[in-house]
Amino acid sequence: MSDIFTPVTLGGIELQNRLVMAPMTRSRANADGTPSKLAAEYYAQRAAVGLIVTEGTQPSDDGQGYLTTPGIYTDAHVEGWRTVTDAVHNNGGRIFVQLMHAGRMSHPDNTPHHRQGVAPSAIAPGVPMFTSTGMQDIPTPRAMTTDEVRQTVADFRYAARRAVEAGADGVEVHGANGYLVQQFLAPSANIRSDEYGGSIENRSRFALEVARAIAEEIGADRTAIRLSPGITMWGIDEGTEGSALYRHLVGELDKLGLAYLHIMHSGVEERLVDIRKRWHRALIINRPGRPRDEIGADIATGLADLESYGQMALANPDFIDRLKVGAPMNEADRATYFGGTEKGFTDYPTLIDAATDKEAV
């Protein structure tokens, strides 16, 4: 059996190990959506993981949901991301940009055009969101026209091309966590009567069209998608057909020859086993809250080819080194997750830092 430190080929790239830095929103981009100067340092510090998946990055103005999240659809965005990808590559790492359209999980105060959010249907998620003036209820979104849905597919395609121009090794479509792609999948958020609503096949159509368009644009071996089957958050409910929905969706995605499928799993184990049977390429599994002593368990059993980690990678720039020597991990500081400066972003200490401090004493 492979272990976590065994190299693996993912799409067309060779990874030095089977551990992945999961995508995590940090809300530290500049006002125009370009990554801040600290972002290059932040990601480069963590380049020893096999693959970095960046924070969710919007493909358009409409795609933004939260304050100061990055984009990848203007020349300035491309130049900003190039500093990040260069820094990661110079440190021997690999990086995929995650493309995330927030859909109804948006507030006009957080977007560059200050317009009402867009979604499959005019159904509010029923939760508040942080804005520059504090917590506010998320307004009811505007239902997208059929032409707007197709334009959004084109926006994803264009953003993927710009990400590769910026030096990314590939892109991951964010189809999880209650954002636009999953909103199309869930009957609680999608009551459309056109070809994007109703049946399982129709509700899956948007996800499949986005993945197919990106694969055509940059190559299937540079294209990936993240899903979170069965997750219930922010008003998302995939209903009693959830298992059948993902059997269809994963089966159709499998035909596209994508680089990998990334599953955020916190649901029924049998569904995950079923996905493994239907997916014939690299599978990344993320189990939120997985304890340290279970790292590598899914790889050891063959359920996963790689495993992704969020908080431990966030708080430990030398995550891989600490695992190799059995060193304790820094605890993540929740108060600094979103927004701010270098605190809780690029200032987490490494083992070398700790040794230097000890010698100084």
Describe the structure.
There is one protein chain. This protein has 361 residues and is α/β, with parallel strands linked by helices. The protein has one domain (8-360): Alpha-Beta Barrel (TIM Barrel), CATH 3.20.20.70. Helices cover 33% and strands 16% of the residues. The protein is built from 11 helices and 14 strands. The protein has helices at residues 37-45, 75-90, 146-165, 180-185, 200-218, 242-254, 269-278, 297-301, 311-315, 319-325, 351-360; strands at 8-10, 13-15, 19-21, 51-57, 95-99, 118-119, 128-131, 134-137, 142-143, 170-175, 223-227, 260-264, 282-286, 306-309. The strands form 4 sheets. An 8-stranded parallel β-barrel has the order 3-4-5-10-11-12-13-14. The longest helix is centred in the middle third of the chain and has 20 residues, at 146-165. The radius of gyration is 20 Å and the shape is globular. It starts with 7 loop residues before the first strand and ends with a helix. The mean pLDDT is 96.
